[in-house]
Amino acid sequence: MLGFFYHGIFGGKAAYEEKGKLVSLSDQNLIDCSKENDGCNGGDVNSALEYIIKNGGIDTDSSYPYTSKNGTCHFDKANIGATCTGYLNVPDGDEEALKQAVATVGPISVIIDACHNTFINYKSGIFDEPKCRTDIPSHAVIVIGYGTENGKDYWLVKNR
């Protein structure tokens, strides 16, 4: 299974239940507006969640689309796709706890080792990198589900 390191539980399930579909939230909102992070140069999941809590929400991706560069903050409360009143950590490396959180809470932010060409060039299918390390977090993604295919367990992950 995919190596993972840190998990922040975010209120994505509430956005799903309220509107009847999974709402895509704006990465660009965080890049431009979460000053505790470093824009396109990287950031921290806790700081991003703290920004969303203090800000009163995060805009939808459709209202604040990804531009792949740092920009001026133009958050608009009228376009909030989800709010976050708090978060908790799933113990590092505890895949059963992560499954339980995904099933009962909703989308979970995780940090993975994405420093391999196989990840950079990934197109489709189950990603399995034998050199994946659990001690070098480098990229945040969102786990939105899990399953088993041909006897191989996998995480269903949303990546920008």
TrEMBL record:
<dbReference type="InterPro" id="IPR039417">
    <property type="entry name" value="Peptidase_C1A_papain-like"/>
</dbReference>
<comment type="similarity">
    <text>Belongs to the peptidase C1 family.</text>
</comment>
<protein>
    <submittedName>
        <fullName>Cathepsin L</fullName>
    </submittedName>
</protein>
<dbReference type="InterPro" id="IPR000668">
    <property type="entry name" value="Peptidase_C1A_C"/>
</dbReference>
<dbReference type="GO" id="GO:0008234">
    <property type="term" value="F:cysteine-type peptidase activity"/>
</dbReference>
<feature type="domain" description="Peptidase C1A papain C-terminal">
    <location>
        <begin position="2"/>
        <end position="160"/>
    </location>
</feature>
<dbReference type="InterPro" id="IPR038765">
    <property type="entry name" value="Papain-like_cys_pep_sf"/>
</dbReference>
<dbReference type="InterPro" id="IPR013128">
    <property type="entry name" value="Peptidase_C1A"/>
</dbReference>
<dbReference type="Pfam" id="PF00112">
    <property type="entry name" value="Peptidase_C1"/>
</dbReference>
<dbReference type="GO" id="GO:0006508">
    <property type="term" value="P:proteolysis"/>
</dbReference>
